[in-house]
Design goal:
This protein is of the alpha/beta class. It contains 12 helices and 8 strands. It is globular, with a radius of gyration of 21 Å. The structure holds NADPH dihydro-nicotinamide-adenine-dinucleotide phosphate (NDP) and (2S)-3,4-dihydro-2H-pyrrole-2-carboxylic acid.
């Protein structure tokens, strides 16, 4: 499996998760432009690295594209000759680039899967949405799904637009929780707790809430009520979130997130 842009944040998290889950490191090649960064990445994960994309993809059955969306067109044009005849499975992790663009850039008939993972893949707790384009075989779908499941859970969407919804929930979602944690840590510190203690309690609480929600038979609304004693402390805090518009703000942020993905697609210059 060849990861183009493999030492970056997202591909690096997937590779780290794959290797951590027992996938043979010697079967992974990560490419990039910065040789120093690649050498450090190779030392950390034991994978092969290369600064030559075209040489790296020669003979590969599966390519994972993980450069920034703005760089994707140039990358595909660089790779087009190497993939147009052999037609390996191409899995792209990029937000905001529709399949039709890859078909223009790589040539028609290349089987492409859009995958939208998230950075918790690094610790095996990723969530990946998948959408398969035309001509992707069942065996190739299985390969994409196995990659995603090696680093967390995988979910297929039936429509390409569903990927933008996945971005709004899980692709970008870790940052929402990090923002919330950061705000809690800052507030606790401001109130007099040491930053280290605030961090420890906040992170353990986030982990505990997620674990409890996953193990529980009741939904998150009920779990929230279970913490709230009538006229107690939690009720006061939740009232503050609700009167301050947190539910509407979350919905707006997710709407804006998905809308940005659609806007990025419109910004492409063919
Ligand atoms: N970060 C996230 O949480 C998520 C990101 N994504 C998607 O993943 C993709 C990558 O994002 P992210 O990992 O955050 O970005 P990064 O900038 O961290 O990673 C991109 C990597 O690509 C390398 N790169 C750039 N140009 C080339 C090139 N021509 N050939 C080879 N390597 C190249 C860069 O390294 P160097 O400059 O050293 O070459 C860099 O390491 C994006 O398309 C994004 O939409 C999807 C889901 C979640
Ligand atoms: O912010 C971004 O554009 C990427 C896609 C999903 C998460 N990070």
């Amino acid at each position: 499996m060849v990861f183009i842009g493999g030492a970056g944040n997202m591909a690096g998290a997937v590779i780290g998760g794959l290797v951590g889950s027992g996938y043979p490191a010697e079967r992974i090649v990560a490419t990039g432009r910065n040789k120093q960064k690649l050498a450090e990445f190779a030392a950390r994960h034991g994978v092969e690295v290369s600064a030559d994309n075209v040489a790296a993809v020669a003979g590969a059955d599966v390519l994972v594209l993980s450069v920034k969306p703005q760089m994707m067109k140039a990358l595909c044009q660089e790779l087009a000759e190497a993939v147009s005849d052999r037609k390996p499975l191409v899995i792209t992790l990029a937000a905001g680039i529709p399949l039709a663009a890859y078909q223009r850039w790589l040539g028609r008939g290349v089987p492409i899967v859009r995958a939208m993972p998230n950075t918790p893949a690094l610790v095996g707790a990723g969530a990946t949405g998948l959408f398969a384009g035309e001509g992707v075989s069942a065996a190739q779908k299985h390969i994409a799904e196995q990659m995603a499941e090696a680093v967390g859970i995988a979910l297929w969407v039936d429509e390409e637009a569903g990927i933008d919804q996945v971005i709004a929930v899980s692709g970008s979602g870790p940052a929402y929780y990090f923002q919330f944690m950061e705000s809690m840590i800052d507030a606790a510190e401001k109130a007099g707790m040491s930053r280290a203690d605030a961090e420890r309690l906040t992170l353990q609480t986030a982990l505990g809430a997620a674990k409890l929600a996953m193990a529980s038979e009741v939904d998150v609304a009920q779990l929230k009520r279970n913490v709230m004693s009538p006229n107690g402390t939690t009720e006061r805090a939740i009232q503050c979130f609700q009167s301050g518009g947190l539910p509407e703000l979350v919905a707006q942020a997710m709407h804006d997130c998905a809308a940005r993905a659609a806007e990025m697609a419109r910004e492409l210059d063919n």
